Amino acid sequence: MPSAYVDTFARDHLPPPQAQPEYLFDLPTLQFPAQLNCATELLDRHVAEGRGERLCIQAPGLHWTYAELQAQANRIANVLVHDMGLVPGHRVLLRAPNNPMLAACWFAVVKGGGIAVGSMPLLRAKELKQIIDKAQISHALCDLRLAEELKLAAADCPTLTQLRFFNDPGADGLEAAMARQPATFPNVDTAADDTCLMAFTSGTTGSPKGTMHFHRDVMAACACWPPHVLRPTEDDVFVGSPPLAFTFGLGGLLLFPMSVSASTVLVERVSPPELMAAVQQFGATVMFTAPTSYRAIALSLQGKPWPAKSLRKCVSAGEALPAATRKLWRDASGLEIIDGIGSTELLHIFVSADEHQARPGATGKAVPGYVACVMDAEGRPLPPGQIGALAIKGPTGCKYLADARQSQYVRDGWNYTGDAYLLDDDGYFHYQSRTDDMIISAGYNIAGPEVEDALLRHPDVAECGVVGVPDDERGQIVKAFVVLKPTAQPNPATAAALQDYVKQAIAPYKYPRAIEFLDKLPRTETGKLQRFKLRQT
Ligand code: 3UK
To answer: What's this model's pTM, rounded to 2 decimal places?
Structure first.
C-alpha cells in the first residue's frame, strides 16, 4: 500500500509488525480498500451523496450542516497547507474544549494527510512539552482561551514552529486566515494504514504513552460497536462530557454520529447539571458520560420528575459502572445504561451490552469484530468463573509510538488491557479491578470496585473509592474513602454503620477496616478515580 506520507516519522516509529497485535477483519464491513481517508468517508461522502444539508454539529448559538462543516474544515486545511506548510505525515496538536471549531480542525488535519494529536484542556506546559517532544509535533491549532500553557510549552519545543489560534476575532487568528482561503480542498489520498491520529494516555506513572491509529482503525471503530450495540439512527442527537482528546469522546461525540449522518452537540462545560441542561436544550437522544456523572445526575433528581424525555440511549465508559449506579439511573430515567469497556490503545469499546442485554455488575460480551478472553498468568485461556487478565483481539489494536511498553500491552498477538475480569457461563465479562489494583489482605483477593458498589447502596454515601493500604499484620487492609451526602455526618458512628452495612451486603472479610471521609475524590479529566492518590493519603 503506497503511503501518502512525505514526512515518515509515524511510519518509522510504529512498533515492528511482530510486536503489533494480531488483527481480525472477519466482518464483511471490515474489508477496507488500500487507499482510505477517514475524513472523506465520515464527512465529504455525506455531502457528495446529497446529505450536505443535514444537521451535523450544534453548540450554543451555532448550527452547522455537513456542508458547512466541510467548508470550514476545507478552509482550515488550506490554511494548514498553504500558510503553515503542512505536508502529509506532519503531527498537529489540537487544543480546545469540545466545540465546533475543534471538530473542524480535526477534519482539516486528517483531510490534509496530517496526524491529529489531541490534548486534554487541563494539561499544563510541562505535560504539553512531553507530548510535543514525543510526537515531534510541528503545528498546533489551539483555542485562544487555552493559549497560555501552549505558548509556555512552545518556547521550549524546537519542533513546534507553526501555531494558530481560533475562536479568535483578531487579524492574526485562524478565522481571519480561513476567510482568505477557498472552501474546497482535495483530500490527501492516504493509505488505509497511514496514521491519522495519536492519542496520549495519561498513566499514573512514567511518561505519557502515544497510541497511533490508522485511517482504517477509525473506520473499523465506526463499523463495530456503533452498529452492533449502540444502533443509532440518522435522526439521533448525540451529546456528552468526554473531551474529544479522549478517544471515548472523539468516537462518541464526533466519529460515530457522523458515521450515520446523525448530529452531535458539542458543549464546553459538562458538569452533571450542565450536561443535563444541554440534553434538554438540544433535545439530545444519545448521551455519553462516565459512571460518576450518571450517579451525580440521578442523585440530584431523586424524588423529582424525569426532565429529559428526548433521551433514549445512555452510554457509560471510562471506568466500571457499579450495579448501584445502574439501578439509580434506571429509577430516575427509566433507561438502562449501555456499559462498554474501551481503551485508548484499542481506540474504542470492545466489550459491551446494549440496553436490552445489559446485566447489572457485568460489562457485557465481546463486541462483534472483537474476541475477548480471560487469561491465566501464562497466557492460557481460563474457564468461566475464574479471575484472570482480559485479553482482546480485533480490527484495532495497540501501536505505541516508540515505546518499550508495547511488549507489556501486546503479548502473543493479544492486547492485554491491564484489567482483571471474570467470564460467566453466559459469556458475560465481569470487571473486577485493574490487575495491579487487586487488594490482597490476609491472603484474600479483594476487588475494590465490589466494595465500592456495596457502599454506594448505603443511603448516606454520595461517592466512594476503595483501595488497599499497607498493614503490618495483614499485608494490606481495605480502606474506603467516602464522600457523604450533605444530610449525613462524618463521624465514627457513621463509619461503623457503613462497615456493618458492607458486612451484610458482601462477604464480611471484604469490609473496609478503615474509613476516611473526604469532601471530594481525586479524579482525572476523563472521570477516572485516581486510586494511586488515595493510596498516598
Ligand atoms: C477502564 C473500564 C470497567 C479499564 C475508553 C471507552 O477508558 C477508556 O480509555 P483509557 O485508555 O482507559 C482504559 C481503561 O479504563 N475502563 C474503561 N471503561 C470501562 N473499566 N468498565 C468499563 N466500562 O481499566 C480500561 O482498561 O482512558 C473507554 C472508549 C474509549 C476509551 N479510550
So the answer is: 0.97
